[in-house]
Amino acid sequence: MSNDDDLLDAAFLALSDPVRRQLISRLSRGPATVNELAEPFAISKQAVSKHIQVLEQAQLVTRSRDAQRRPVHLNPARLEALTAWIDQYRLVREAQFRSLDAVLRTNTAPCGSSQKDRQ
Amino acid sequence: MSNDDDLLDAAFLALSDPVRRQLISRLSRGPATVNELAEPFAISKQAVSKHIQVLEQAQLVTRSRDAQRRPVHLNPARLEALTAWIDQYRLVREAQFRSLDAVLRTNTAPCGSSQKDRQ
DNA sequence: TTGTTTATCAACCATCTGGTTGATAACAAC
DNA sequence: GTTGTTATCAACCAGATGGTTGATAAACAA
């Protein structure tokens, strides 16, 4: 987990599983232990523990220590890094769509669906 | 690829690979064919074609037809769905952090690092 | 027709993923 | 000490993923 690319790999991979996304959802309402997190699921707590390790490696969550408990906390900063990556490309493309739209609207009149591929 | 959850699965999985993220990056500058997309990479174009199929299944890209070419287009709408999902939880948690911060700032004076786990 | 370009399909293979069960470690309470 | 709770580790397994090579199809150009 050295460079930035590996962190993005790990984070997106972590979010590609519905169980892990539900864990994120639960943690957005506050920290929780593995047992608490595992309770709503039909799978073993070992499996949940593995899921949490995946999230932890991606730095989407952190752990603390409270006797034998190891509460899991959400890390919003890492979530923000993901939206930042996505928006970097989404916004560029949407801006191009808007300007293309403006060109089509002013030059050619009818609102036909004739979009050329190579710009 | 029926429900919303499957689409999120597919989309986050699609972005968990550095090659596919670079494809997204390239496509944010405009449509391109498989051969054009494969050129910068050391892997075969069959491999790139597979990557594009993964992106297409996630509806992050679309294809069109231009003679024997099949140009690939970015789909910003799907990218936006991802940021929407992330922000849904990121913003909740950050808001909680801010209010906790405010409570700590007004009630207890010294800026020590004593955060309790269970809220 | 023949050839070229573009792109996918079909096998195949090594590795990773997500789940299981059983054993183990660390701590709390008695 | 013993018992119970919390959590991880280790080994295993079925299926998915990411890459390869070779064959094939589709749309042109000559």
UniProtKB/TrEMBL annotation, chains A, B:
Pfam families: HTH_20 (PF12840). SUPFAM superfamilies: Winged helix' DNA-binding domain. CDD domains: HTH_ARSR (cd00090). Signal peptide: none annotated. SMART domains: HTH_ARSR (SM00418). It comes from Arthrobacter globiformis (strain ATCC 8010 / DSM 20124 / JCM 1332 / NBRC 12137 / NCIMB 8907 / NRRL B-2979 / 168). Residues 1-94 form the HTH arsR-type domain. This is Putative ArsR family transcriptional regulator.
